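=== Structure Prediction Worksheet ===
Name of assembly: unnamed complex
Input type: mixed (protein and possibly other molecules)
Chain count: two
Listed entries:
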Amino acid sequence: MRQLRAPNKHLLAVLLAAAVLAVPALAAADDWPMFQHDERHTGVSQDSKISVPMGQAWTFATNGPIRVQPVVKDGVVYFGSCDQKFYAVSAATGELRWRYFTDGEVMSTAAVGDDGAVYFGCDDGYVYALDAKSGELKWKSPVRRTPPPPVPASRYIKSEQPLIPPWSADGPMAIAGFAKLTHQVVRSPVLVAGGMVFVGTGLPGSWGHLHGFDAKTGRLCWTRPSSVQGTYRVFGGVENGPVMYRGTLFWPEYLIEALDPYSGRAVPGWPEPLLYRVGSGAFSFSSQIAVSPEGLAVAFVYARHYPHSGHPAKWQVVDLFDNSIRFAERMGGTRPQLEQSPIVNGSKIYFVLMEAKTKSHPALACYDLLTGKWLAGFDQPDGRPFNGCLALAGETLFGVTQDGIIYAFKVGAAGGELEKIWTHDLKTAVFASGAIAGGTYFIGAEDGKLYALLKESGK
Amino acid sequence: MTHPHRRRIRYPISLLLVVAVAAGLCLSVPAFGQVEAEQILAACKIERGNCLVTGPGRTRLAAELHKHGNLRLYAVEPDDASVQAARRHVDALGIYGKVTVHEGDLGRLRFAPLYFHMLVFDLTARRVTEEALVNMYRLLRPGGKAFLLVAPDKAKDWRKLMTSLGLAQCDISQMPDGGCIVYSRPGPDPTQDWRAWFGGPFHQCATHCPEFKPPLVEIWSARMTTSARHNWVVPIIGDGVVVYHEWQFGYINGHDPYTGELLWTHASSFPDNAGVHKRLWMSVPAIAGGTTLVATSLEELTCIDLKTGKTLWVKPIPADIDWDQVPGAQSLRHLAVHDGKYYLLVNKERAVYWDPKTGGETSTKPLLPYRAYTKVDNYIFYPENWDYSHRPMTWTVKAEGSDEALYTFRSSGRPRFCIAEDQRALLYMAWDGYSALDLDTQEHLWGGPVMPYSCGSATYAGGYAFATASGATYCMDVRTGRIAWLIRNSNSCVPPSIANGILYTMSNNSLRLRAMASRNLLTLPGRRSK
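=== Predicted Assembly ===
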């Protein structure tokens, strides 16, 4: 059993106070109420009904690609679409419950709070809170646009116009959309915890920000810019959302930042990281993090300052109690898959890899969380990468490729082996992540449909 | 005598007749907006793309335009109540998402610059002012059409104003409920395309676009479809498409140059013999004749249709070409375009040309018998000590047809420079950053500034050179070296490409291709800064 290190007294005090304030958001067994299931983004559902082979239970068509992870609570699936609407449909039948019009594509994964509200961000620069039952607007708050930091050299002549425009067409398939002159796009998954709503924002070339809203009123309580000056913030700002662990907010950025969720201030005593480096170059976290119950965060880093250096990407396990690196292991390439989040389940972690060069660096891998030992891998024979995030329920692990083929693997309890047990071709491209709830696997696709896959009857 | 029941029967029959006639009339009378939609589409002849429709109650027209054309419609209504009503109407038709409704007016059009293929502006209730035209020009892409509904008695005034602002390409015609003006924005200039790495046939790294000046405005960015290494992912622009290759994953993507929309993806399976690095595409693509050509790790050239992304032809690379992975060196063994054909310089004795459409191959002498040369006017630049190392290089400059060297200069390793022909300057990489020579006098114009981790050649347009270095793309005045502009851009080791007034650069941040337009491209011709 893993032994926790003694945390320093400042951190302990903050954690204790936060533990009192924060109500652990334990999802019902059949729910998937936020990005990667829970506040720690484990990607593990407690759903015991999931079983393969599956068949298509229903589809729900929208008029735009779906590029979010659907979230499920109390038998309702919530998701946004690039047709500029946010939907609630019955998880059992696919029947529309309600829809809400926005002014931009919705590419932010929603979160359903215990307060009966569903929260999501939008390309129109607003964060929305809707009544989960009726779809009525509770509040919508703009994300404050912060000017870029000053150019750190006086000799540069600045233009009369902002260097970075307020709008940018973006997305995996780069569909330009509605321009906002005063706001940034909101595409990070939303995290709801402790009566607060957290979203990340940003634009290519600009700095990312993390925002904390009062979940009840929509009041912007705080905004936190990136921690390190430079041009590396966008990625974390746009796509990455924070995780919550024991009442403390952890934001995977250039560094993993530990924040007080109510003020956005750094937790006093949070140690400076020393060992995140990849080779001799600069480094950065490249994606979401997932946190084990013991506070071990799985994160990906890669060298971005020296593109020619060839430093391989690494996955690392960071102890959130003292911000130390437990170990770092090389990944199969210089860059991990960007839009994924690892799965943390007990002592095992699962993630997908890009730039799979050899069979020893497969497309999907399972490692031991405590030792870093490689346990199993799956090599994608045609080289097509897995896209989006994995999802796990019981012994069944789901992944989907960019070409829209859903894979199910059986994960062994002892050896962690990955045995492919089922595939299903959606026959459409997928730039989204799936969710598991009520024995059903939900996933949105580029054809604008939300697919619900359920165990085939009689099998 | 009248039958007692006849009167009772007569009324229902009359009512039925009236209803039937009314129903017939309704069926024969076109729905609101249908006639206008057909006329607008006939006048504009735009069949695909994005269309903006403004004006109170014009959402119905937008829906009709969507029905009769293959357009993505954006309708703008003036207030929230109109927006909600219009949204319900469109949603009931089942087309919301393909037609969306937003709040705004001609002074508040919050859309990306150059985003629309077609505009329909209702100006019937507006005074003849410049404001609507400013927005029109900012939003309409080159080659697009604007359909302006105006009051008949003001049509000539609008036309006069437009002509005075440099918008001469417009026609006045009549609509059932008023006048209209159709403005056709001139399309992109093929001579300002960026058809191959390092620019034109002589690798000048320059584009003739005198109006391309900072400041720049980002008009879109597109994330790459995979997480390929960004090194040597070079955007190439030609024939209305931006192409880049995700060389480690076998993808080539074609994007719209003005909206960033992904037009197609060409995917190839990994070949078994692709090597441990699985580099499938071994060259930066080039564009000619509506096609794009790229070399593969199977020692083949694959030609792809720019409209569809489908393979047109595949040819083996000539055996005597010492093919290598994407060459980092300027003007040596990379695909270029000359006189509408692809060509590859084999050595100083031989060049191979391919016809873009058929793949027909011709072998001729190279344009000039020098290895890794560049030419401008009648000056020829070539390296004396060419090799693959990063050792300093000595360059010789000769007049064409003469054996006598005019002068020599030394650069840091690998030949990377750009030539500002109209400014008579040559930029090359030196140890302290970039340096510049006067083309005619050999005078050293300026040196530096130091830009850490600068890489690749600079790119020239409109009196400025754009160079990528760590964390930024620098914009320098080529005659003075003064940094006039700085674009924050997590760098890749690729110089930006400039075509038709837009700078395209690959950002390391989330691997995005960014497109930044010269502000002149968004400004009315009559209001541009000189």
